Batch of 4 targets.
Target 1
Amino acid sequence: MNIKEIHLKLENLLKKSYSPYSEFKVACILEDPEGNLYEGVNIENASYGATICAERSAIANAVTKGVRKIVSAYVMTSSDSFISPCGICLQTLVEFMPANSQVVLFNNQKSYKIWKLENLLPQSFTKKDLLNE
Ligand code: THU
């Protein structure tokens, strides 16, 4: 799927964000190696700490469908800046994405910037650290 089609999908997905408290909308689309797409939005809660970010909502969607490898992440927010996924979401993405995978950040102005995951979260903690490799 090309970037214009992804952009259109993100714009529609962003409308599904449930964010009545912050009014900060986030949408995420993850792509597996076969090109299948998995969507997520941020879902807030009156008990604020129960909120889930769009990226982790998309990961939960993908992993529940049996996916174990993600090659691209596309994230759009309602901001006119390019917003990085938060630390917890980056850590969650690292579990399933190779370090050099692309993370494409869209603002609300039809622009995007491409990052490598390893540049958004350098020196991340991975299963290699647990195995002492
Ligand atoms: N949010 C995300 O969905 N992803 C992030 O990586 C950062 C923050 C959401 C959580 C909350 O609903 C709103 O943005 C404001 O923090």
Target 2
Amino acid sequence: MSEIEKVKCLIIGSGPAGYTAAIYAARADMSPVMYQGMQPGGQLTTTDEVENFPGYPDGVTGPEMMIQLEAQAKRFETDIRFGFITKIDFSGDVHKCWADDGKEIHADSVIISTGASARYLGLESEQKYLKLGGGVSACAVCDGFFYRGQETVIVGAGDSACEEAHYLSKLCTKVTMLVRRDEFRASKIMSERVKNTKNIEILFNTETEEVLGDGQVVTGVMAKNNLSGESITIQATGFFVAIGHDPNTKIFKDFIDLDETGYIKYEKPGTSLTNVAGVFVAGDAADKTYRQAVTAAGTGCMAALDAERYLSAIGH
Ligand code: NDP
């Protein structure tokens, strides 16, 4: 049996929420240990330019920002580990976690910052231009600005898609919205807003066949009407996917209260507390509304402060 490691504060996940929690926890002498997770740096590592994080007047790339956050967390001696937590047991007073290398960790406090993953259609051409940073995005608020004065396509029919289509309509000359059924899933108010926006064209019963490009950047989208079978080509320089997110919370489901869509529920609004004493949550794992780097960082700070108070209260 491998040796059990005892830690004061275990941080699971390494996006802006996790790194901010680490910076605060380390400066409060909580000797945090961080497991970075499957995608060190989180969702922002797939974002090209970040222009809306305060403090970067010239913008910064997502990966560069994560390198800087990691360096800042290390500066205060956060123990950052490349690896992920595969299993947890929060049934007793000790919070037990197991890492992918088999190590068993007993943590006095745990900060969950495992984030969420945007869903994509999974088309080869979509993934190609996503990886190239050439016009595919799952976040209009993050990337819409790069397409101002241009034509874009957005896929999805939920509240996110409507909100993002409306956001894009203020920047782009035209937004084409592809809805796979003959109706929206979004609330009436959101779908009405989209329907009443002049430069948004909604194509119902329409599915994406291919994202078109010149090898570097997106130039259009080929879509098909699933009733008539007719294919059309839509000119666009940006292809936005807004078909939902999956919070990375599966390993916690037996112990932590989740809502019906898998997001972690806050025990007390305005805090980072979960239903388990000593376990806190930060970032997109509990946020389906804002999902911004800066809001994730803010809740990371809250989680570290809440964890510090918890540790003081139990005499650490
Ligand atoms: P939803 O799960 O609500 O909607 C996802 C949408 O994507 C659905 O319309 C679905 O179509 C469509 N979709 C899924 N897969 C595909 C595919 N392969 N091809 C084409 N379309 C696809 O996700 P959201 O992110 O929109 O919302 C998540 C939650 O957050 C909801 O509860 C929502 O109400 C909430 N929210 C609230 C906001 C607000 O109030 N301001 C803003 C944003 C989100 P179909 O309908 O056919 O299944």
Target 3
Amino acid sequence: MRVLEVASEAVPFAKTGGLADVVGALPGALSRLGCDVTLVLPAYRRVFEQGLPIEPTGIEFEVPIGGRRPLARVLRCPVPGSSATALLVANDEFFDRPSLYGGANDYPDNAERFIFFSRAATELACRQSAPFDIIHCHDWQTGLVPAYQKILYRDWPAVANARTVMTIHNLAYQGLFWHWDMLLTGLDWKYFNWQQMEFHEQLNLLKTGIVFADAVSTVSPTYAREIQTPEGGCGLEGLLAARAGVLTGIVNGIDTVAWNPATDPHIPRPFTAADVEEGKYAARVALAARLGHPAPDDRPLVAFVGRLVEQKGVNLVLELLSRLAGTGRAHFMVLGTGDPAAEESLQRAAASFPGTVDVVTHFDEGLAHLVQAAADIVLVPSRFEPCGLTQLYAQRYGAVPVVRATGGLLDTVIDATPEAINDGSATGFVFGPAEAGALVQAVERALDLHANRDRWQQLVRQVMARDWSWDSSGRAYLRVFEETLARAPATIG
Ligand code: ADP
Ligand code: GLC
């Protein structure tokens, strides 16, 4: 099966969050299952800073965007750890910038940048000699691809018989733009209606993808259900419910090579379940040194790694710090970037509890690995969470996750009730309401269990035994691809 993966980020090329981890690993997983995979990404400035063997292809073409025809230059690079190839769409005006989407504010021309990318990716697919079976798109940045394949490029042999699959990694980001940006798409205004590309008078790129794709998926079964309800649907619940017949939820896998405590170059003493205590102690020593402490204290380390935005429950973390940091029961560490006000509040918390609360507000991949290795408890108190990867990395590194009962967190963590610990099924602590009191209680439950060394070690070993490799998720995607290919394409109305 020939598969084209189209996305706006992928490890190791460029990353802002879990999307990159997933899109970086999926080509390898699909290749191992016999697929011939090509990945298309924007050639951001950052892509050239990773020391990758990028080479020119000689392919270049103009992409009509409104009245302009900017040039797409195509570069090539193997996808590390797989037989897949990445094709990078370069255009310095759009992608030679310091960040992927903008800093605290989005770049004002993000509509134009990703309309350009989506059209270039579709046309690039058309220009390949062998036809594609599946075009798999991720998130709003690629939402126009299914529409382009069905409308503007339907006669090109390389994509004419392809089926498109749209994967939603986060419904909260829909790519909503001014209606006049419709002119940039090159698509007829007749598609700008409430059943297709319009959402309350704006252009909605993710909605477009959901409408025009032959199949839709999201990154956990629980989130697939949640997005069909008014609470989780971000206004698209009706559309998603209407597409329920072709909507699936597939929990993300993790890259078990990049995230392997037994071989991780970012940690001082690699470890397995057999020597997890020694490994964690060495990581604590290294982390203390990184943070400027003379030595680690002997309290359990409770950590948070993630974007500092409302979705992630950052206000619950702040409240937790104000209630627990003064008790002396644990050491806290936050690694994250995001909302400047949240960064500032966290820095204030760190200043109020020196030696107990550490806060690092930049993006540091190596430090994220070290924190997972050093932590005893990892917090994921998200308000909503399509899948979440940090709780999966935590489990692999023997850190016990404390998560809120939502989305993929619910599908990947089993609460450590006494029965669940005894029968070996427990893999973390789960709390219900999005309230600080519930989070504090769950963390206290974890700390109480931590005080019993044997019981805690039993839980840690159970947690580490969970298999989140891509094998089963890769097979689930392949099944979706096969089922989609077996169906007639969606009609465009
Ligand atoms: P999301 O994609 O919603 O941000 P996920 O849990 O799926 O959430 O993925 C988050 C990814 O981003 C993980 O790989 C996590 O380690 C990483 N990450 C988040 N913030 C940082 C940071 N400040 N430094 C390093 N890695 C980070
Ligand atoms: C999104 C979601 C996160 C998910 C990631 C990868 O960023 O917020 O829950 O794990 O995509 O699918």
Target 4
Amino acid sequence: MKIILLGPPGAGKGTQAKRLEEARGLIQLSTGDMLRAAVKAGTPVGLKAKAVMAEGKLVSDEIVIDIIRDRIQQPDCIKGFILDGFPRTVPQAEALDKMLGEFGWKLDSVIEMVVDEAVMVERVAGRFTCAKCGQGYHDSFKKPAKDGVCDVCGGTEFIRREDDRAETMQKRLAEFHAQTAPILPYYKSKGILRHVDGMAAIDDVTRQIEAILAE
Ligand code: AP5
Ligand code: MG
């Protein structure tokens, strides 16, 4: 199964992708996570992406298309995958179609997570993840069961993203409208665009996604 989770920053793409990974054995392919890893490792891609990401702008199509092309050819992707944060521009969507075609694959669903953007700034500002296993949490909506200890791996160090500051988040939302929203009609015309209410509780959003995938 090959799925795209599409939605503005903070919509819950990463949260739901992780759940699908656990429940269905699909692989989460988050270009944001891959780019952050490249920045941390100081690779040539990371060096190019660092300032762009800190500003809340989009990294070049060429870079992310190359990353995805390499990644989907790895053996674990045979099980199926969830694209989280890719494609984000019309050229990326077209490049994805082309590469899926090369492998004889097709997309099952593109799931748009519909949210009230005014609330998204608060959502990302409260977000933090376990430094060890990457499990995501939130100051108000999803705290670890024991304060300061990761529910999944017991880790005690947590990280917050540099681009989650309110000002940068506004720029990321603007980029979503300018560059990513235009790909919605592209998938609508292919008849594979579906919607979930991303403002519902996390468990409820998971149920809505599962209902779509079960069809
Ligand atoms: P990326 O890492 O993809 O970030 P994003 O799209 O801005 O999305 P987020 O990760 O912020 O939000 P999310 O939807 O995953 O929400 P989450 O589940 O964490 O991209 C970062 C940067 O990398 C980009 O700005 C760009 O520079 C670059 N980049 C990446 N891909 C690119 C591409 N393809 N092309 C070019 N550049 C690219 O949830 C948010 C918070 O809310 C969490 O704390 C969570 O616990 C909570 N939450 C989740 N769901 C709910 C709910 N239903 N109710 C209450 N709280 C919830
Ligand atoms: Mg994410």
